Description:
- This protein is an all-alpha fold.
- It has one domain (about 1-45).
- It contains 1 helix and no strands.
Amino acid sequence: MxxxxxxxxxxxGGWNIALxxxxxxxxxxxxxxxIIGGSKLLAGRSKIIF
Length: 50
């Protein structure tokens, strides 16, 4: 019974680490894309005429 508990805890820990790494990568890439998009908008702001 205890061995099964340790196996479940081990798998859960592994999944938590994997999901944490994936969320960090997704967050960083989304942040970089937002910064690039914002800089392009600021650079083209002088070209807009109302």
